[in-house]
Amino acid sequence: MVGIVLISHSPTLAEGAAEVARAMGVGKAVVEPAGGDSEGRLGTSVDLVEQAVAAADDGDGVVLLADLGSSVLTARMLIEDAAGGGVLLADAPLVEGAVAAASMAATGADLAAVHAAAESAREHRKVS
Amino acid sequence: MNAADLAAWIRHSAELVSADAERLTRLDAAIGDGDHGHNLDRGFRAAAGALPEDAPPGKVLIAAGRAIVSKTGGASGPLYGTALRRAGKALGDAGDVDAAALGAALRAALDGVRDLGKAAEGDKTMVDALAPAVAAYEAALADGADLAGCVRAAAGAAARGAEDTVPMQARKGRASYLGPRSVGHMDPGASSTALLLRGLADVTGEG
What we know:
The structure holds 2 protein chains of 2 kinds.
Chain A: E1 3-8, H1 11-24, E2 31-35, H2 46-56, E3 62-66, H3 70-82, E4 87-89, H4 94-105, H5 111-120
Parallel strand pairs in A: 1-2, 1-3, 3-4
Helix pairs in contact in A: 1-4, 4-5
Chain B: H1 3-31, H2 36-48, H3 57-71, H4 76-91, H5 99-117, H6 127-142, H7 147-164, H8 188-205
């Protein structure tokens, strides 16, 4: 199953978003939070993100969702380093993208489909 | 220059960043999230402690870049880490770095920062210091300057580039949310880039 990693500046934001996404993934989707810096403060830790990717990846690939700033840059950098194609960053808002990705991943869809579902979250308007 | 010179630059940069951490953080507090100096201080301290012995110049920069990525914490970690790692890769396994090779490494660093951050000149980012620095380096090289002269030209251009960010409106990072209110402040990333290139000029000027 395609795994999902949520990268946030805040450990509690990453964990909370993962909690919501897992519920929408009907308990099947694998959603790993990677929040905060290496000392649990606000920030980004490339080591934590790498650990989360390893934990989420069963061989079918991983979709990353990031909140902003260093989270996004860290995600881009990891993908560039990996260069294998098994890890993709979704250009999507964190919570909505995580829910969409978890919902699709729980169906057993492949990496491209889960990534596309995450990015489709951008189009879900909240007014009109 | 050789591996020892580049290691000396990283250690000197760590000292310069540490001495300037308060100023960089104050700049960042005006338009960013107020942590640039302290983040970079942590990153460069880690880099200075991670320098390999008996490794070629390229490997020194790659090791420093990896430590900065791992320990910096803010957006400057992936950006400076990528810059140093790309520069290190450009140097390859050569034991000695001449003026042309260092210029190619600086160009690779700029390309890495642009690829990762997607910033262009005028966006009020470190690219506004690094891009003119690389251009000035290459112009000095074409004019026949030696390595120290090329680095001096780059450091001067970076300092002017950082000053030039003051009237710019930010188009990247937290500062971009402020719109016109980001005008009138120097970009902290451009300022730290100028500082690091001044450090390189200090080290190469001693030889």
